[in-house]
Design a protein that fits this description.
Layout (H helix, E strand, L loop, with lengths): L8 E5 L6 H11 L9 E2 L14 E2 L2 H9 L3 E7 L3 E6 H9 L4 E4 L2 H10 L4 E6 L3 H11 L4 H16 L6 E4 L3 H12 L2
Helix pairs in contact: 1-7, 5-6
């Protein structure tokens, strides 16, 4: 008789525009038992975002208090502007209840999670090419030209960190990337 698989923490990281959010949403659609913690952020909500669903929107002061008390599994200032973090309790409770956890976070946060939870698996989602990443970022139309430039500068640094990952998946087609994740995660 096969023993039940232990739940795991899976970190999905990669540069802005690579398709992390789309990949995670599709994976969750196909495997709804995966737990995705709701992150905290100090930025304001974008149109259509809902507090407690999209993010927990908190003040800078509240965020600092949570960092100081150890309530965050990871935290970082992303793109030099706003703080983001993952509530520790949410992850611990999901694992204790037997659910896999999926964290979609930047490389700074991924490094912290790996330090705090060494058994967590880091999956780096890479673009098929630099040109394709530029096309995707510009094509989103959600950031100004200056913000896109900043994200591309950050992306160059993030791409150099892919060697730190346990696994690298090139996101050429969403369907293929999601299927690769399903196989990798044993789902």
């Amino acid at each position: 008789m096969r023993s039940p698989r232990q739940p795991s923490v899976w970190i999905i990281s990669g540069p802005s525009g690579v398709g992390k959010g789309t990949v995670c949403a599709k994976l969750l659609e196909l495997r709804p038992g995966i737990h995705i913690p709701v992150s905290l952020t100090t930025r304001g909500p974008r149109p259509g975002e809902i507090d407690g669903v999209s993010y927990h929107f908190v003040s800078e002061q509240r965020f600092r208090e949570m960092v100081a008390s150890g309530d965050l599994l990871e935290h970082a200032v992303v793109h030099g502007t706003h703080s983001y973090g993952t509530p520790r309790r949410d992850v611990v409770d999901a694992i204790a209840s037997g659910r896999d956890v999926l964290l979609e976070i930047d490389i700074q946060g991924a490094r912290q999670v790996k330090r705090n939870l060494p058994d967590a698996k880091l999956v780096f989602i890479a673009p098929p090419s630099w040109e394709e990443l530029v096309r995707r970022l510009r094509g989103r139309g959600t950031e100004s030209a200056s913000q896109v430039g900043h994200r591309l500068a950050t992306a160059r640094t993030e791409l150099q960190a892919q060697g730190e990952a346990d696994f690298v998946i090139v996101n050429d087609r969403i369907e293929d990337t999601v299927q690769a994740l399903i196989v990798l995660m044993g789902l």
